[in-house]
Specification:
Layout lengths: L39 H4 L13 E4 L5 E4 L7 E6 L4 E7 L5 E6 L11 E5 L40 E4 L12 E3 L10 E3 L4 E9 L10 E8 L6 E8 L3 E4 L3 E5 L11 H6 L23 E7 L2 H6 L7 H11 L2 E12 L6 E2 L1 H17 L2 E9 L8 H14 L3 H6 L1 E12 L9 E10 L8 H4 L1 H5 L17 H11 L10 E8 L10 H8 L20 H11 L1 E9 L5 H17 L9 E4 H5 L9 H24 L7 H7 L7 H15 L3 H8 L1 E11 L9 E8 H17 L8 H12 L10 H9 L14 H13 L4 H21 L2 E2 L6 E3 L4 E3 L6 E2 L3 E5 L2 E7 L5
Parallel strand pairs: 18-19, 18-21, 21-22, 22-23
Antiparallel strand pairs: 1-4, 2-3, 4-5, 5-6, 7-10, 7-13, 8-9, 10-11, 11-12, 14-15, 14-25, 15-16, 16-17, 16-24, 19-20, 25-31, 26-29, 27-28, 30-31
Helix pairs in contact: 5-17, 6-15, 10-12, 12-13, 15-17, 19-20, 19-23, 22-23
Length: 869
């Protein structure tokens, strides 16, 4: 945007890399006052940079308003400051490794020009060991040892998670937990009120003169499962979080007498309980899991528990020993969620979880879209029709890319229309065909190209002959028919529906012929010198189109193919499209027709201006961004000063009635929520209570069921691990196939050497899956597993090994069903150990969602611990 790039004359001779062979100095890598970036040829001069668009990796700004310096060795600031949570492309370090040369990444749909400069490493996240290599090219969470103390902290692979909490049981947390973009200035910028577990990306201590003031802070955030992209939430005080050093989670059993205490001493004396049974959420929903309670501490330690387990004993014997030894858990559990303006108005944890799940459902639905492209295929479009089809093909192929497919669920259909087949104006008489049924663009021979095959192979053969020999057609009937008959996905699953209507001519007016319409609208137009003689009289008008669009909940995007400055039939279509959009009122987020010049269409791939694909993309993205912003704005309190909320408060589009209406419509269709109900949900504070609870009740009943919380990548590893076990345990081999297979799989996902680890250590170390009461196969020592394998090989005892093998295959099948959002009683899964194939009868399955999506694209799967072998 008018920014100039300052490149020194010496840069033309070649850019200095960090090697001794370089002929140029990093001191000469500068940017101008606007922070404009050097050309790609310069950026490629940094070591290991092959693609300037990706550099050597990415980082995120961890403090508010970090400064970009113009040069490596000075603090001369460029004009651009980079805000908290800004994503940056990294190109390389300065010579003293105290700065990084970076380029900003504009937000999706933002037209800002990227800025470049040198940023202090103190203001951004850097990978472990400080090197942007291998899988550490993006910010990584902190790591610490899990509940087990067998492994050294430095060698443990568990990412640190923190559970936001508050020690008040009633939910009074004064508007939530303070979050800071920079703890050093002491001004909170946002609040967190959700019962969520966040990843921890950094920690810091702040010097303070007051001994009562918090000095330690944790930087929390989320990570997208699709590409690992980091979204920071802010710095939070140590007293407001509980570190979750495992993936173990529990849920209260229905039959248990619930009890929780503030300290282990109170638990031992059974004095001053914190909780009463009616305050605890203990049940699942019929078709989805609820959030589990993170286990923050176990007593006694896992090592103590395993030291007392009898080697070689049966599963039941070992379970009884483990139950007797295990004393208590320290857990995090939700309290009541109460209105700040009316503390007496409270939801139970189960109620607020259900309400928030509705919002999550609505927000997820906003990223699913059905787009029907409706193309005028009459003779007047003949010169432009093949180029229009090619343009649409390019547009659809853009959505094949992984970032688009991972972020959005887009389905496209294409319909063609012509005029009425005779003098009868009716929906069933209009030439109309959905030539490409709805599909999801995907690469490969069977993907987008195959779906478009009929359309792109010989587009002119699809043109309709105009029996009336006039320029005005039947687009009203075509739009109505498209809205009514298109195979849209259910409105509660996909509330965003678009009809992108591409044409060069309008419709006859109701009750009029083509000639009468032309004369009544533009009597002096030169095109009226030769009036058409067609006798067809229209029966449909703009209001009929509006009614059909509103009933089908369709967003209308009219696209006018204009000839030069526009002919008579162009103008009639534009008038009618504007009328339809005006009548739609708040149901029309798009307020004016998209105009594309026919000459630009004819240029095909060389189109640089007014291209259909770009204009349609921009229009759809505008609507999607507005919807997202509308939902995000609901989360912002009036007192919030976070960068996100600040920008949303000043976004003029959010105040537009059509955007408010669209957000309300999506929330209503997808989750049955009104805007008042959304506000009611977000206006509540919910505290998180950390407390100690016995593992078994006084009468000996189990207090909890056990689960392990795995993010999608971790769940994928578990799936691969179970498949490897199931497939490998039937093989006769000189080496134990279990340990061999586990080592091979673990090493696929890690740079560590797992040679000396047992099965239990691999599961606990890589996935954070503890083995507590369930002390069967994965709780055995190396010697026990080797003994069982040799006994199976010799035939002296096949029962033990076959039992472990059977459980591995059953767990593999169970987790496959979990991935497919299905549930089955494990007893109904039958496995053939010779073929390693299991059967899970379809009639025994039910629909069930095993994951909770704290942030979009990052589900956490809750795996029942007792199905893991």
């Amino acid at each position: 945007m008018g920014r100039e790039i300052l490149v020194l004359t010496s840069v033309l001779l070649g850019f200095l890399t960090l090697t001794s062979a370089s002929a140029q100095s990093l001191a000469e890598v500068r940017v101008n006052e606007a922070g404009a970036c050097p050309p790609d040829s310069i950026l490629r001069g940094f070591p290991k940079v092959t693609q300037p668009s990706v550099g050597i990796g990415f980082t995120v700004v961890k403090f508010a308003n970090a400064t970009l310096d113009r040069a490596e060795a000075s603090s001369e600031a460029a004009s651009a400051d980079i805000r908290f949570n800004s994503l940056l492309v990294v190109f390389g370090y300065s010579r003293d490794e105290k700065k990084l040369f970076v380029r900003t990444v504009p937000a999706k749909g933002n037209d800002d020009v990227p800025a470049c400069g040198w940023v202090s490493v103190d203001n951004v996240l850097v990978p472990r060991q400080g090197q942007f290599v291998d899988r550490y090219k993006i910010p990584q969470p902190l790591q610490m040892r899990d509940i087990s103390r067998i492994q050294d902290e430095a060698h443990n692979l568990l990412d640190v998670k923190a559970v936001v909490h508050d020690l008040s049981i009633q939910g009074e947390s004064n508007g939530g937990i303070d979050v800071f973009e920079d703890p050093r200035n002491g001004n909170a910028t946002d609040k967190i009120r959700l019962f969520d577990a966040f990843l921890v990306y950094d920690q810091m201590k702040v010097a303070t003169a007051s001994p009562n003031q918090e000095t330690r802070y944790w930087l929390i955030g989320d990570r997208a499962a699709s590409n690992g992209a980091v979204t920071l939430r802010g710095w939070i005080r140590q007293r407001d979080v509980a570190i979750w050093p495992s993936r173990l989670a529990v849920q209260w059993n229905e039959a248990a007498t619930v009890a929780g205490y503030a300290t282990p001493e109170n638990l031992e004396r059974k004095t001053a309980p914190l909780t009463l049974p009616e305050r605890i959420d203990r049940a699942d929903y019929d078709q989805q899991i609820t959030r589990r309670l993170p286990v923050l501490e176990i007593s006694p330690s896992v090592e103590t528990l395993f030291a007392d387990l009898p080697m070689g004993a049966s599963l039941e014997e070992r379970k009884q020993v483990a139950r007797r030894i295990l004393q208590y858990y320290k857990i995090a559990t939700p309290g009541l969620a109460c209105r700040r303006d009316n503390p007496a108005d409270c939801f139970s944890p189960r109620q607020i979880d259900a309400q928030r799940q509705k919002i999550a459902t609505a927000e997820a639905a906003a990223w699913k879209i059905d787009i029907l492209i409706l193309i005028d295929a009459t003779e007047s479009m003949d010169p432009n029709f093949p180029s229009t089809v090619s343009t649409i093909e390019r547009f659809l192929k853009l959505t094949e890319d992984a970032p688009v497919r991972d972020s959005y669920d887009l389905h496209f259909g294409i319909s063609l229309y012509g005029d009425y087949q005779d003098d009868e104006s009716s929906l069933d008489k209009v030439d109309y065909q959905q030539i490409v049924p709805f599909f999801r663009p995907s690469p490969g021979e069977m993907g987008t190209s195959a779906a478009l095959g009929t359309l792109v192979s010989n587009p002119k053969s699809l043109l309709y002959k105009d029996v009336h020999q006039d320029k005005l057609e039947a687009p009203f009937a075509a739009v109505i028919r498209a809205a009514q008959t298109a195979q849209w996905r259910p409105i509660n699953e996909v509330p965003l529906r678009f009809i992108v209507h591409i044409t060069d001519a309008g419709n006859r007016d109701p009750g009029k012929t083509c000639a009468e319409t032309q004369l009544s609208r533009y009597p002096n137009a030169p095109e009226n010198r030769r009036l058409p003689r067609s006798t067809n009289r229209e029966v449909y008008g703009e209001q009929d189109v509006v009614n059909a669009l509103q009933i089908a909940h369709v967003i209308y995007v009219p696209v006018e193919v204009r000839y030069g400055t526009g002919d008579l039939w162009n103008r009639i279509f534009q008038d009618q499209a504007n009328s339809i959009l005006s009548l739609l009122g708040t149901d029309a987020p798009v307020k004016k027709p998209v105009i594309t010049d026919s000459k630009q269409i004819m240029k095909g791939p060389d189109c640089q201006k007014d291209c259909i694909d770009k204009q349609v993309t921009d229009t759809v993205i505008y609507v999607m961004k507005s919807v997202w912003a509308g939902f995000e704005h609901e989360r912002c309190d009036s007192h919030s000063n976070s960068s996100t909320c600040h920008s949303l408060k000043n976004a003029p589009d959010l105040a537009k009635p059509e955007i408010v209406r669209l957000v309300d419509r999506i929330a209503s269709a997808a989750a049955g929520l009104t805007s008042d109900e959304i506000t009611n949900i977000y206006s509540r504070d919910q505290s998180i209570v950390t407390m100690y609870s016995p593992a078994v009740s006084a009468d000996g009943a189990d207090m909890f069921t056990h689960w392990v919380a795995l993010e999608r990548p971790e769940f994928a590893i578990l799936r691969d691990l179970l498949k490897t076990l199931c497939d490998g345990m039937s093989e006769q081999d000189a080496h134990n196939p279990v340990l061999k297979a586990l080592r091979e799989l673990s090493e696929m996902y890690s740079n560590e050497d797992f040679t000396d680890l047992t099965v239990r250590e691999i599961l606990g170390k890589r996935l954070g899956i503890p083995n507590l009461e369930q002390t069967d196969f994965s709780g055995r020592t190396r010697d026990e597993i080797d003994d069982a394998y040799r006994a199976w090989q010799s035939g002296s005892d096949t029962k033990t090994w076959d039992n472990w093998h059977y459980r591995a295959c059953k767990a593999m099948t169970f987790t496959q069903l979990m991935e497919d959002d299905q549930r089955i009683n494990p007893a109904d899964i039958k496995c053939d150990l010779k073929s390693n194939i299991c059967e899970a009868p379809a009639e025994k399955r039910s629909k069930f969602r095993w994951s909770v999506e704290v942030s979009r694209g990052s589900p956490t799967f809750y795996v029942p611990l007792d199905i893991i072998p």
